Amino acid sequence: QLVTKKSPKFEVLEPLSIWRDNKNPLIFCHTEGEEEYLANISEEGNVMSKFNTAEIDQVEKVYVCLVKKEGVLPENINIMSQYNAQCSKIKDRLKKHHVQHVNTVVGSQGGEWDYVIFSLVRSLPEYRIEPNPTDGWRKENLGFINDDHQINVALTRARKGLVIIGNKRLMKCNDIFNKLLEDYGRHGCLDDAENFPPVQKRRK
User: Fold this and answer.
1) Which is more confidently placed, 8 or 20?
2) With 80 as the cut, is the pLDDT of residue 101 above it?
3) Nearest one of 65, 183, 176, 185 to 115, comparing CA atoms
4) Which domains does the chain have, with CATH numbers?
């Protein structure tokens, strides 16, 4: 059976206790954070990049759970974002937890890790989300999320489990994420960030 990029096949013999469905070791954690801006210095000069503190908080919570409660080695986890500012902020936050891999989606291309945490960054209050968005609106408010190739790369880097952190209401404006969210919802793999990771006993 062929497995498309949009339908990754996970190599899981002993799934972690955090998953809702052991056959589908993945979760979309809904959080309504706020986009902020950070100037990144590049060859072209100062480039404004986005970050999202609420998502960084959730990334830290998930990462610490994987390492300290589930016993996953730091080198087997890749944290991804499409935004350099988010990657920089995550690296700073997780230094104390000995994080090893924080990469942009482009920088992650060609690599695979047991577990991937993908922070989407883009967010809007619900009242600002268009019910029938135009292509121009999507370009302005979803940015890199509209890059189907990058999204396919991001969704296929994990061998054993994938955690996506983002604003589900905004992501539904993107065709790929709208279908993904419907699929995750059917399998019980969609929840508010405050409920994930679930409270659990330490693994022996």
Assistant:
1) 20
2) yes
3) 65
4) 26-195 (3.40.50.300)
